[in-house]
Design a protein that fits this description.
Blueprint: E1 2-10, H1 16-26, E2 33-39, E3 51-57, H2 62-68, H3 70-80, E4 84-93
Antiparallel strand pairs: 1-3, 1-4, 2-3
Length: 100
C-alpha cells in the first residue's frame, strides 16, 4: 500500500472545511484511490500546515495515474491550487501496521 501525504498551507485558513469537504467528495471517485483521510492541525506546532490529505493507493505505479486523472486534476485546479500558498507531497510505502 502506498500512502501519498499532501501538506497544504492555505492563503485563507477559513477555507479548510470547504476544501476538505471537496477532497472527501471527489478524490475517492478516482478509480485507483483505495481510501482518503483529511486532517487539520491538532496541536500548535502543526499550525505551519492548514491541511493534510492522505490518499491510499495500491502501488507506486498508481501515483501518476491518480495525479493525471481528470477528477484529481479538477479538484486541484478548482479547489486547491487557487487557494494554496504552499503544497508539498510525499509517497510512502506502508508495509507494517498494528491495530489495537
Amino acid at each position: 500500500m502506498i500512502e501519498r501525504f499532501v501538506f497544504v498551507k492555505l492563503k485563507d485558513r477559513s477555507l479548510r472545511e470547504t476544501i476538505a469537504a471537496a477532497a472527501l467528495e471527489l478524490l475517492p471517485t478516482v478509480p485507483v484511490v483505495r481510501g482518503i483521510h483529511v486532517g487539520t492541525p491538532a496541536d500548535e506546532g502543526a499550525e505551519v500546515w492548514d491541511l493534510v490529505l492522505v490518499v491510499q493507493l495500491d502501488r507506486i505505479e498508481d501515483v501518476p495515474i491518480y495525479a493525471d486523472h481528470p477528477i484529481h486534476r479538477g479538484f486541484v485546479d478548482e479547489h486547491l491550487a487557487p487557494h494554496a500558498e504552499i503544497k508539498k507531497a510525499w509517497n510512502f510505502s506502508m508495509t507494517l501496521s498494528a491495530m489495537m
